[in-house]
From TrEMBL:
Keywords: Hydrolase, Magnesium, Metal-binding. InterPro entries: DDP-like_NUDIX (IPR047198), NUDIX_hydrolase-like_dom_sf (IPR015797), NUDIX_hydrolase_dom (IPR000086). GO terms for biological process: adenosine 5'-(hexahydrogen pentaphosphate) catabolic process; diadenosine hexaphosphate catabolic process; diadenosine pentaphosphate catabolic process; diphosphoinositol polyphosphate metabolic process. This is NUDIX domain-containing protein. It comes from Paracoccus aestuariivivens.
């Protein structure tokens, strides 16, 4: 989310093409926030400053190629966007689009993420 503009950048997942927030796994030597910033770059071509405090968490079951799912807890961070680039590591694999938090909540599948996105306008206002 870009707290200055009050918008959320969603990307499509590589597997199903559903709308998601950029996310990834923890990275050795990086805080969770800095790992999220790296994933935002790789998945959406975003540059900016990440807030080190998560605005919330949600849970979902990540489907594996072998036909089973694993439970995952996702920490969500606000990233103040300085710019977007057209060429980034996953540009040929994903679409990206800005939405209001309410519209983004309508488009994502995960119940916990829907709730978190709907709460973002109030949280963003507190941080600004």
């Amino acid at each position: 989310m870009d707290s200055r503009k009050g918008k959320v950048l969603l990307v499509t997942s590589r597997g199903t093409g559903r709308w998601i927030v950029p996310k990834g796994w923890p990275m050795p030597g990086r805080s969770l926030a800095d790992a999220a910033k790296q994933e935002a770059w790789e998945e959406a071509g975003v540059r900016g400053k990440v807030d080190q405090d998560a605005v919330g968490t949600y849970h979902y079951d990540k489907q594996q190629d072998r036909g089973f799912a694993i439970p995952v807890e996702v920490h969500v961070f606000v990233l103040e966007v300085d710019g977007l680039v057209d060429e980034f590591p996953e540009d040929s694999q994903r679409k990206r689009r800005w939405y209001s938090p309410e519209r983004a909540a309508e488009l994502v599948a995960e119940t916990g993420l829907k709730k978190l996105l709907r709460a973002l306008p109030a949280k963003a206002g507190k941080q600004a």
